[in-house]
Amino acid sequence: MGAVEIKDLHRNPQSNVFPMLLNLAGVAVALVALAKGWPADNWFWIAAWVAWLAYFQHTWMTIFHEDVHYTLYRAKWHNIMNGTIVGTLLTVPFSVYRHVHIRHHNRMNHPEDWELWPYVDPTKSLAFRRWFMVFDLLLGLFAAPYIYSRIFFSKHSPLTEPKQRRRIWLEYGLIVVFWGSLWGIVIYTGAWWLFAKMYLIPAWLSGTVQTVRKFTEHLGLPLGTPMEGARTVLPADSLAKAVAYTSFHISAHGVHHQYPQMPHENLEKVVVFERAKHGDAPVFTSHVRAMQDMARHLWHPGIGVNARTTTGATSN
């Protein structure tokens, strides 16, 4: 595979409408089932639908990710509009996520990588990173908005242009209005249990799923090339392939960092080629194996300069 083939894989992407509608349908089916108590209003079915909903709520983050790369739709304005809607639901402004994620690509695993704070920050002690890891895993629903908001609210914020900041303030205002109104309705109607099983519990679980995915992508990995600094999954079984498809192949993570504008459906086609160039690249045949490799670093949660280089990632 050469430069011409790589260039061709950047062209003529397939429509993202079907995987996005599949994800939204997954959310809609679960919401209707929970609201109607279908097929039965008992703990087994509630737990099953909550778990189902948690997964498909997690895929909102991957839709959001495609928006910030302007790759979900062909038109830039369409990505911005969709990203603003999804960001409001996730309580992370689209503009904030885009600025953080751009830096994540430009300075992956470096101290300037705002998306992977505090694990990349050499000024944060191991004890602090351990405590924050627990917060991140158990309350990712709140940890993620905090991590992303730092780029805007920090006194060291690189976002200093007034027009840029006004836009972000408006997006935060939209979040406050939307969620303030929704919470007001819940309080007024007393629909606490309905709200808990249709949003709060699944969102809490999906926050944990998102944190595990983030850790699986980068935890314990040092500085290096995109392929060496991110775990890549090339799924071998049907379930793993279904997960990759519904999450826009974000699990081909090293390749995505290598070619951030390549249509997601083509990323896996490049994995073998890139792995041959980077023999030490952590490439796995399943999400479970990638998570097992990541789990070795949980007691020493560091990335980049904070990673324990003596126990680097393996491949299988």
Pick out its properties.
single chain, 316 residues, mainly alpha, two-stranded parallel sheet, 13 helices, 2 strands, 61% helix, 1% strand, globular
Descriptive notes:
This protein is mainly alpha-helical. It has one domain (3-311). Helices cover 61% and strands 1% of the residues. The protein has helices spanning 3-9, 17-36, 43-68, 76-90, 94-106, 126-138, 140-153, 162-189, 192-218, 238-246, 253-258, 271-277, 287-295; strands at 232-233, 283-284. The chain has a two-stranded parallel ribbon. Helix 3 packs across helix 9 (192-218), helix 4 (76-90) crosses helix 8 (162-189) and helix 6 (126-138) packs across helix 7. The model has no long low-confidence stretch (mean pLDDT 94).
Give the low-pLDDT segments.
none
Radius of gyration: 20 Å
* Helix vs. strand class: mainly alpha
Proportion of residues in extended strands: under 5%
Number of domains: 1
What is the helix/strand order? HHHHHHHHHEHHHEH
Coarse shape = globular
Number of helices: 13
Q: How many strands? A: 2
Major sheet description: 2 strands, parallel
Separation of termini?
22 Å
Mean pLDDT: 94
Helix content: 55-70%
Biggest sheet, spatial arrangement of strands? 1-2
Quick structural gist:
The protein has 316 residues and is mainly α. It contains 13 helices and two strands.
Question: What is the fold's blueprint, element by element?
Answer:
Elements: H1 3-9, H2 17-36, H3 43-68, H4 76-90, H5 94-106, H6 126-138, H7 140-153, H8 162-189, H9 192-218, E1 232-233, H10 238-246, H11 253-258, H12 271-277, E2 283-284, H13 287-295
Parallel strand pairs: 1-2
Helix pairs in contact: 2-3, 3-4, 3-9, 4-8, 5-7, 6-7, 7-9, 9-13
